[in-house]
Structures are given as structure tokens and as C-alpha cells.
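Sample A.
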Amino acid sequence: MDRTDLKILAILQEDASIPVAEIAKRVNLSQTPCWRRIQKLEAAGVITGRVALLDPEAIGAGITVFVEVETGDHSAEWLARFADEVRAMPEVMEVYRMAGDVDYLLRIAVGSMTAFDDFYKRLIGAVPLKNVTSRFAMERVKSTTAYPLPEPAPRPAR
């Protein structure tokens, strides 16, 4: 990826609905080469999708809970079953396998304590777990979907 690709990615991470003509203008390209670069980045798997980001409060999912899971079973079979179960739970926004004393960290979005309790009961009933700890977010201080991009390589001196 060159400097122009990185600029395109930065623009798209901020607002993927910007027309290609506007992106092209911002990166000093004509529209067709800009569109080709975007298509190339998609084909290479750098751009994995384009989505609308929603306000969780507005859709009734304003409570964020981080759930730490410890398991006594680290077999491939247990992991496959656990992964299938959490993928099927719509409240689960993200799942990470962790290093350290916690095996998995889940980010959950729900609208009420009752909804979380229902989720919790389904989670502990789905697969054997050693320990589950829930931590409720009081305030979202920062939230972004934009990854930090590498600094472009300096242009060679002429």
C-alpha cells in the first residue's frame, strides 16, 4: 500500500458513504483510478465491508457489559462448541481469546438488566464454564471503529 491507498483508507474509515468522486478529489486522483484502488483494497481483503454504525441507546442496546470467561476445558471440541454458541447470540458484539488468567473476553450489548440476566442464563447453560465475571460499563469514554494506519513511507528525494 502506498501513501494514496492509506489516505483512501483513512477517509473510508471515517465515512464510507462519501462518494468516490469526493474521495478522488481529496487524494488528488481522478474518479476511475480512485475507484480501482478501492476495488483492489477490497479484493485484497484490506477493506472487509461497509456498514452503518448505530447509536446503541437509540436501538435499545445501551448497556455494555464485558464478560470474562474462564474454562476448565481447553479442548478443540469445547472451543468449537463455545464459538458456535456465542456467535449465535445476538447480544455478543465481540469475543476474544485471551492470554493470562481469563480465557475469553466478550463485549455484550443489551437494553436492560433483565435482558442481561436472560443472556447470562443462556451463556452458562450453553457450555461448561469454570467462572464467569461480568463488568458493566458506566460510561463510554472513547469508541471508534477506525484502526490506526501506518505512517506512509517517506517519498524518495529527487
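Sample B.
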Amino acid sequence: MSQIRIKDAAGYLGVSDDTVRRWIEQGTLAAGVDESGRKVVDGLALAQLAQANAAVPSDPAGGSSSARNRFVGLVTAVHSDPVMSQVELQCGPHRVVSLMSTEAVRELGLVPGSVAVAVVKATTVIVETPRGQS
């Protein structure tokens, strides 16, 4: 069982330490004490809470796709040369960067402030854990 300190749990959820403490007091999130006497939450319970509270904006495309990783966000920057462009999106707390042709940028009308969907279909996804975590 993974035990996560309140400060770290708050960071993973994008809320304050006080919010996590309130959730514990309200019974929304169960807590225990680690071997050092610090209050901790169960990693699985935290993941389930994060998933249940995830606010996913509606996809403006509304179509069907085999890609499951769709991130709706706002274009924050477009850096173009005559052939290629780098497009940056802010999708909730995530920054997503895409390289595409400048022609595609023009055709899609991608400019800072426009709404876009980053669709990620990858054959390789690397997952890492912090040192010392098991």
C-alpha cells in the first residue's frame, strides 16, 4: 500500500493542504499515520478521488476516435517557420507541445487563445516513479 503525505497529496490534486485536511475530516478521504507519526493518505484512495473529481472539458470535435488520450485546452503559443511549427497548449494543469507543418497550423486556424484538442496516440509511454517509492 502506497502512503502519501498530505502535502504531496495536495500537490498531486492541485489543491491546498487545508483542502486535503478538510476532506479527511469530512470522511471524503481516509487517512492514517506512517511509521514516523505523520498523517498520510492511501495512494489508491487518492487516485480514486483524483479520478472521480477530474473535470474533463467537453471535446468540441465530438466525433469518434480510437485514441483515448484527448486533452482539450487552449493554444498558448505558436512558433512557426516557413515549413514547421511548434504549437503549445495548456490543457488543465498539463502543457502539451506539438510539432506540425505550418500549413496544418494555417488550415486549423491555430492562434494563441483558440480552443484545440491534443490527441495522443503513442506506442510508447514511459512511466517513472520517484526515488525511494515502492
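B remarks: Residues 43-53 form the longest helix (11 residues). The chain has four helices and seven strands.
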